[in-house]
From TrEMBL, chains A, B, C, D:
<protein>
    <submittedName>
        <fullName>Trehalose utilization protein ThuA</fullName>
    </submittedName>
</protein>
<dbReference type="Pfam" id="PF06283">
    <property type="entry name" value="ThuA"/>
</dbReference>
<dbReference type="InterPro" id="IPR009381">
    <property type="entry name" value="Trehalose_catabolism_ThuA_prok"/>
</dbReference>
<dbReference type="InterPro" id="IPR029062">
    <property type="entry name" value="Class_I_gatase-like"/>
</dbReference>
<dbReference type="InterPro" id="IPR029010">
    <property type="entry name" value="ThuA-like"/>
</dbReference>
<feature type="domain" description="ThuA-like">
    <location>
        <begin position="3"/>
        <end position="219"/>
    </location>
</feature>
């Protein structure tokens, strides 16, 4: 059983009617609903307004994979909570960062770059192409799928070259984007997945849900021993 | 259930008494025994002397992960069988290449390089270090393990930079070696694992067996759609 | 001074009037002309109809970077010459493979995969995006450039994940393609660059010429020592 | 002409007699001396005690490649200066981080991981092996070189998998270490190189100096256009 926590800043839903219409119970509920339909996953949610943003040490210790959606309130996420999430990733917790989470404190801290990009909100078509059909995150997907309407994100996306590039998106307006990127940091596995603008029903799309569920399975902890660091006695006699 | 076929050229065992003493039923049997102790794997073996080297189209079609051990008879492997294995890797079959299999036709074909290296048979100590503790192939391993006696393989190992470097070996005689390397080719996942000289009981070592079983699970087919290639009609109207 | 040899199968130009109109002296001459305008490069050409396809051992030994354009006559390239080129790449010669060279014997041998892809000849627009603006192959380029008309190549392109992904192309008809890919194999550096259909004037495009010249400088031999392989005495005394 | 700034915290030299004996003018002077013997480099130094640590905006704007040595005073480096260096890396300045610089604020910020490792100060032998002989940082090096005495650094080194792994070290006491690692972040190129304990004369070693000079040439800015980010109008008409 993989324990998943879906985190959402849950702000747009309170102040923007058009977001509430699409996601009446919050983006996190739509994402969690998709995961609850899967076998072998145990799903909970957490949001910014909760104490400690719902991410107490106990919750994180009981989380195998954390999913992160944020946008307008990145700066309100407490630095201490960011450190706590970072330590858990170093210790093996998986992390899936969605869409505008590219600018979250935790993603920028893990990437070490600006994570900036081009964007345009014009309800256009995105076509997500699988460029790594050997990857488990591509399981049960066709070779491409379309999302319309979606926001455009365009290159250059200022991230480290991903360890694995799973998806590249084509946009109607003429741009491309590295839409599915995996990273390992410490013992943690990280998956960035682009789609998911808050005013569009992206998280009800069955293939978007398929990708997120595949990502959760891929990002679950590896089970390797925690490395020992610091001063170390020789294993062989020194000459 | 992951279907595994363990392939061995099965030649040393017939002509070298000291190999037969260590592996009386063949190296493949020792490797297969290790895998049969695992849950969720269905294991068969195949060897060079069998018709079509035991690798008929039917056997390969029923194989999720193929394990390859060869050394002195690489050149006797039929080119047509090599092509058949290659096509199956392109279509998603996993492949685990062990030790002297670095010089097999199939590994050289998949790598595109000479796959040459330094070597020395002196019964020395190898210490295998985990350098990617986020990788599932490192599951349930300590941060290093030792094998003695082992043959030395040393850098420069003429392979493409691995997609993921899981292990680096330290050798008593002063060399290092990239001992655990993963690759994706076509839809297939490939794992090269260094240890396993034929006169040493390496394949009875519990942690070597752990690595091979982890490798099998990692290399199982991803389940993504088979890409369509060739002439392609436009998905959008051309201006 | 970097010594460059531009190789072309030089077949379309003899039998297809529309190719001869665009490249009256052959594709190789247009590519070579672009390079001859650069400082620090010494350029020669070689073609399939010449003895040994113009790629004698002496020519290859005097070549730092080989550029390869082929399409309809891949199968006529002698296997021995392919081996010779391959050995030189292993020993450090750079190789730039253009467009339909994706299906050349030498590229397929170096990649180890089918190198197949989607394609369409419809004179559409290609927009080449820089996705690695830290790469010297992107020097003096804008963040994207357009080529129209061009042939479409689409994913999934069956290559190993590139060591570095420099360009991704957007196509009018709805596809994307990893258009600029680098690899190291042996001591050689390889750059695959997509554009260049034989009936279009792509190799006169100043930015396409910029990319090829940048590629030549990047692919020039590194100057590291040739590794010694085979049996190796211990550097430390064995216990 | 590549403009290099060698930065040193310059603290051990003031308080530890044994460091001052080895590096009477500071570690930075020994490193700078090595570089000044090279063609095409213009070298200056900067140290922690200087105003703004010697790294004013003007100095950084005039620096193509910054070299960083720090150890006991990482925490005294002003966060604002770290941000300034980070922005310059994003904009294309090269960065070479030496030895104990693995724990500097700038390296940890760029990596996104703890950058922790094993260590031992026992004056033992390090043998640095070239594992990427196609890399320009390996130019003019033999296939391995030895440094004795050196401090041991051992795996697991908590860094992102390097874009390119150039060196792996063997240590007398039984450990291995990824000693030469390259990264691209933003438009900047980063090279981490392990050797250089402050009480040992490592920076007078001719091959260590060769590596650092090669690293400088490799890390120099690529010359690609600065990407434009933010809101972006469509390049094609939207349907």
């Amino acid at each position: 059983m993989i324990k998943v926590t879906v985190w959402n800043e849950f702000r747009h839903e309170h102040i923007h009617e058009e977001v509430r219409e699409v996601y009446p119970d919050g983006l996190h509920r739509a994402i969690a609903d998709g995961l609850e339909a899967e076998d072998g996953l145990s799903v909970r949610t957490a949001t910014l307004p909760e104490p400690e943003h719902g991410l107490t040490q106990e919750v994180l210790d009981g989380t195998d994979v954390l999913i992160w959606w944020g946008h307008m309130a990145h700066h309100e996420v407490d630095d201490e909570i960011v450190e706590r999430v970072h330590r858990r990733v170093m210790d093996g917790m998986g992390l899936i960062v969605l869409h505008s989470g590219h600018f979250s404190k935790i993603f920028k801290k893990l990437m070490g770059t600006s994570c900036d990009l081009k964007w345009r909100e014009a309800g256009e078509k995105e076509r997500v192409w699988v460029v790594d059909p050997a990857h488990p995150i591509a399981a049960d997907l066709p070779e491409y799928f379309e999302i319309k309407p979606e926001e455009m994100y365009g290159e250059h996306f200022d991230i480290p070259a991903p360890d694995e590039l799973v998806f590249v998106s084509w946009f109607e307006g003429g741009e491309v984007f590295r839409s599915g990127c995996t990273y390992k940091r410490g013992q943690g596995r990280i998956f960035y997945f682009r789609p998911g603008h808050e005013t569009y029903p992206t998280y009800y799309h069955p293939l978007v849900r398929r990708v997120i569920a595949n990502g959760v399975r891929w990002a679950a902890p590896s089970g390797a021993a925690k490395p020992v660091r610091g001063n170390h006695k020789p294993l062989e006699s020194l000459g």
